[in-house]
Design brief:
CATH class: Alpha Beta
Radius of gyration: 19 Å
Structural class: alpha/beta
Number of strands: 16
Oligomer: single chain
Number of domains: 1
CATH architecture: Alpha-Beta Complex
CATH superfamily: Spore Coat Polysaccharide Biosynthesis Protein SpsA, Chain A
Number of helices: 8
Order of helices and strands: EHEEHEHHEEEHEEHEEEEEHEEH
Helix content: 25-40%
Strand content: 25-35%
Largest sheet: 8 strands, mixed
């Protein structure tokens, strides 16, 4: 199953880091947060990734073009310029790096990737800044069992994130950013049918607004409740918390 990861935004709330690099390339434990996210999926056998690029796309392309050299030992003969890469344990991932525009909104980026999917295909979809100890296979099985077009992973977090309202497992309210209160929120980690792209008008469409609201009204959005660890990396404070968890050797999202 293919995994689409949004990696094209400006990351303005983490400007201390993103003035120099796209947010998915901000490092936790010396590795880009994007690498951590991909490893979560790969731990469950999901190894084909479509990365939606935009802001500073060249940095992500350069990272993957040099991935083999960056993650192995090297020997360089300075007299001849010959370089030997000493083989190591490398992931058997297939990574498609697709420029989806500098100013394209989240829904627009997904719509631009439709040509990478087959009609009616089920795929995984998430953001390039969130990690969790989520069981991806359980998430997929939940999606297959209900037969609807979309599943969103619901997590618990403070109210500055979009709130989800439930009726059993069906999502009946998708409020982007409520004024107050806490409860279930969207944690990304979607499972979607390719048909959801019909709900996206164009580059200017924000996925979290009209498309998910329409899917919700039509009873096509289901919520998988994840009670374990989840965190985004939206601010420098959140980045530092993730760094501390990784340094402790007990990062909850390290399931590989």
């Amino acid at each position: 199953m293919k995994v689409i990861i949004l990696a094209g935004g400006f990351g303005s709330r983490l400007s201390e880091e993103t003035v120099l690099r796209p947010k998915p390339m901000v490092e936790v434990g010396g590795r880009p947060i994007l690498w951590h996210i991909m490893n979560i999926y790969a731990a469950y056998g999901m190894k084909e990734f479509i990365i939606a690029l935009g802001y500073k796309a060249e940095m992500i392309k350069e990272y993957f073009l040099n991935f083999y050299a960056l993650n192995n030992d090297l020997s360089i003969d300075l007299a001849t310029g010959k370089t030997t890469i000493h083989d190591g344990n490398q992931p058997d991932w297939k990574v498609h790096l697709v420029d989806t525009g500098l100013y394209t909104e989240t829904g627009g980026r997904l719509k631009r990737l439709r040509r990478w999917l087959t009609p009616g295909e089920t795929f995984l979809f998430t953001y390039g800044d969130g990690v969790a100890d989520i069981n991806i296979l359980e998430l997929i099985n939940f999606h297959k069992a209900h037969g609807k077009l979309a599943t969103v992973t619901a997590v618990r977090y403070p109210a500055r994130f979009g709130r989800l309202g439930f009726e059993r497992d069906r999502v009946v309210e998708f409020c982007e950013k409520p004024e107050k209160g806490e409860g279930w929120i969207s944690g990304g980690f979607f499972v979607l049918n390719e048909k959801v792209i019909d709900y996206i008008d164009g580059d200017w469409t924000v996925w979290e607004r009209d498309p998910v609201e329409r899917l919700t009204r039509e009873g096509q959005m289901m919520g998988y409740r994840h009670n374990g660890f989840w965190s985004c990396m939206d601010t420098l404070r959140e980045k530092n918390i993730l760094e501390e968890l990784w340094a402790s050797g007990k990062a909850p999202w390290k399931i590989w």
